Model the fold of this input.
Amino acid sequence: MARRRIGEFELIARYFAPLAKGFAGARGLESDNAFLAADPRHDLVVKTDTIVAGVHFLADETPELVAQRALRVCLSDLAAGGATPYVYQLSLSLTHGWTERWVAGFARGLGADQRRFGIVLCGGDTTGTPGPTTIAISAFGRVPRGKGLGRDGARAGDELWVSGTIGDAALGLLAARGTLKSATLERRYRQPQPRTTLGPRLLGVARATADISDGLLADAGHIAAASRLAVHIERDLVPLSADARRALTVKPALWANVLGGGDDYELAIAVPPRRRSALLTAARAAKVKVTQIGAFATGKGVVLNVSGQPSRIAQSGYVHF
Done:
């Protein structure tokens, strides 16, 4: 009998979390971010992400959008940590057939987002590869000392809120592949919108956060697992865009993509009921919609309710291995 291959989080816990013992800022590698003391008033929040052609972005994607995806997925994690963007480093592995025109477009995309999000390049590396093109970015943000948010702070009774709308990117990938028609959804997949205006405003409001990259069910489940809790999600409360709602009306089976497809880069937020009004005030100031979709409770795992009844979870999230 073939031995089962372990998943991403089991791999990290078994082989790499032991290497981080002794450094509190690693948070046991249960957070996507690391927290490093910078000065008496601030911590640096550090996140590294890698995207690979044909895996994380379409192989024929424009270089401007490739660059912006690479940077924005890191900025989304900084937002989940409550951090304000500061600087980033870039590691770019180009295939042997690269062109200067492609690199110029890639740099334009980064430049536009540097201005948009208030961040600047501070170093990195470039190398050749037989393929595919691979981009790794390490982004650094700043947060008040000891205040950075992670996944492990939720408590039983906390409410689960999400920013924006859910499922647009997963449906947008279908649109980009030609199996669904919606320019709006396709744009949501190609150009994620990290919630950098909301994240820092969650300090002192949220107990735990995660960016929704692997899928709503998976990333809410990551908060629950890190906090040693269960999370209950009401599918009927999950906020949808008009285009996503139309797609689901035609094909209800797409709910599996909406809840488990990933790439939304919205925020999942654990908030105690007494801080609900503070959350709404923060969301208004950030000009980002937030919606309550569930709650955390004693127990373990993710419980999905449909019309008030527990439902089978067909697709919990993106699986890397």
